[in-house]
Amino acid sequence: MISVIILTFNSIRFIRTCLDSVFAQDHRDIEVIVVDNGSTDGTVGFIEKSYPQVMLIKNKNNKGACKARNQGIAVAAGKFVLTLDCDVALEKDFISHVKKTIDRSEGRIGMVAPKILNDDKKSIYSAGIYLSKARKFYDIGKGQLDNGQFSRENHVFGPCSAAALYRREMLEGIAVDGEYFDEAFFFLVEDVDIAWRAQRKGWKAVFCPMAVCCHHGNSSKTDKKLRQYLCFRNRYYSMIKNKDLPGYSRNIIYLLVYDAPRLLYLILTNPYTFKAIKEIGRFLSDNSSQGHKKCYSSNLS
């Protein structure tokens, strides 16, 4: 069985298309869990009326993507977990392809990254996540026209959690105090972090070009400056908790070329930046002890 976990937050515009694409899959051995983060636009009532076969978890307020996904995983029965944003629509053979890929792959494959297209169905949203030496993460191929350049299976750092398949065994092996996705992140960069922790445990991720879906993006209409703040803060959270700062500091050129100008720009343009800096400092202090629950040893070059 594959457990499909979908997050909703005021998602009435998207959820029908998403759920219809899931139930139209040619792979039938699935369960569908929707975790709603306090929608007020009728999303919950619509799901209850139109899709009674869905397991629905109803939060009173927005607990963030990480908490909501953890709630879904905690009750999921599948050997694999497919995380989906509410504004994703799957092609009908999507699940079959990701399942075949993980079944035939050699080694400890714990994650599958599909080909995620933008709404235009012509350009790439994500062909997996890449993490650079500067510890800058980005979605491979983002914004490029899909002209067949992403047509081969290959290893990637991890999948974008908007549409990502995770092996349950892997998730259980990297969970900390019952958290699979680190709830301190709230949302954004949590997929980088979970892939990083999985890599440390010897798990790998593979890109599956035959599994195709479309993604609208930012269906929650999160403010741009708030997204910048979370991306900036959570990037440092991930480096701190994975004990990567010493190795990163040895590559001072990356700090000068990327981080310093970016920090200056954010200070000048984003009022959340000083809040982020304070939270990063507290996070660093909390994770300074080797025995802290959020600390992980690092062997990633």
Question: Can you tell me about this structure?
Answer:
By secondary structure, this protein is an alpha/beta fold. The chain has two domains: 214 residues, Alpha-Beta Complex (Spore Coat Polysaccharide Biosynthesis Protein SpsA, Chain A); 63 residues, no CATH class. It contains ten helices and twelve strands. Strands 1, 2, 3, 4, 5, 6, 7, 10, 11 and 12 form a ten-stranded mixed β-sheet that branches. A two-stranded antiparallel sheet has the order 8-9. α7 packs parallel to α10. It is globular. The C terminus is likely disordered.
Topology summary:
Blueprint: E1 2-8, H1 15-23, E2 30-37, H2 43-50, E3 55-59, H3 64-75, E4 80-85, E5 88-90, H4 94-104, E6 109-118, E7 124-126, E8 129-131, E9 137-139, E10 154-156, E11 163-167, H5 168-174, H6 190-200, E12 204-215, H7 224-241, H8 245-250, H9 252-269, H10 273-286
Parallel strand pairs: 1-2, 1-4, 2-3, 6-12
Antiparallel strand pairs: 4-11, 5-12, 6-7, 6-11, 8-9, 10-12
Helix pairs in contact: 7-10
The whole-number mean of residue pLDDT values reads: 89
| Strand segment tally | 12
Fraction of residues in H or I helices: 25-40%
> What's the CATH class label of the largest domain?
Alpha Beta
The stretches of 5 or more residues where confidence is low (pLDDT under 50) are 290-301
The CATH topology of the largest domain comes to: Spore Coat Polysaccharide Biosynthesis Protein SpsA, Chain A
Task: Determine the number of helices (DSSP H or I, runs of at least 4 residues).
Answer: 10
Instruction: Name the quaternary structure.
Output: single chain
Whole-number total of structural domains: 2
The helix/strand order is: EHEHEHEEHEEEEEEHHEHHHH
Q: Which sheet architecture does the biggest sheet show?
A: 10 strands, mixed
Question: What is the percentage of strand-forming residues?
Answer: 15-25%
CA distance, first residue to last residue: 36 Å
Question: Which superfamily, in CATH terms, is the homologous superfamily of the largest domain?
Answer: Spore Coat Polysaccharide Biosynthesis Protein SpsA, Chain A
What is the 3D form? globular
Cα gyration radius (Å): 19 Å
CATH architecture of the largest domain: Alpha-Beta Complex
Structural class category: alpha/beta
